Amino acid sequence: MKIISWNVNGIRAIAKKGSFDALMKLDADMIFLQETKAHPDQLPPEIRTPQDYFSYFDHSKLRKGYSGVAMYTKNKPDEVIEGLGIKEFDDEGRTIGCRFGDAVFLGVYFPNGGGGPHRLEYKMRFYDAFLDFIEKRRKSGQSIVFCGDVNTAHTEIDLSRPKENEKVTGFLPIERAWIDKVISHGYSDIWRVQNPDTIERYTWWDMKTYARDRNIGWRIDYFLISNDLVSKVQKADILDSFTGSDHCPITIDVKLD
Is the pTM of this model over 0.85? Predict the structure, then answer.
């Protein structure tokens, strides 16, 4: 099963660039998109209901052109999951997922901690609520795969300039500690597991400074999976040559029983 996750920074924007069609040609079994910035009613049929896929969306209920997530899957899920069941988080349209048997797949657009202390506090509350959400699922006997824009670089080798960004949201100790906490609960950052010493592989670059041209980036997009699935992931990759957004897609190939 091939799964792709991508923060598109506007699903209609990537469609105009031809990147949505290019994404579909990758022929993934499941695709999760973040920061779609659109209500489903605003999408043309080729995006809302692409051929060969079931499609599901969540969007911001607070303002237009903000946040939003999408999920495309070739097979109809046993269960579709929308939100965390907590209004303050679900109002921003950040979580979409599905279940096939005992395996749960979630695409998440985690909050950015910028914009003042209240947004960092919101981000940390979301982090904690999300971990509680997946832990309840896992303790019921389900395996977990979650992916998306986590909006935090975990370690110093996950961004170009760690020293300069020590006090910048996205690399604050409190944010990085949450990823440590997730891992301590029995989850793995599968790309880093397979590439423990690899440097200069990033998933986001600042467009205003043309940082992608110089590969001055951050790895803030992840697949985090429950440890029972680690041996089933045949490959995890960063598609850093794929363009259309300030992020690039990430992907895993997982063989489930």
Answer: yes
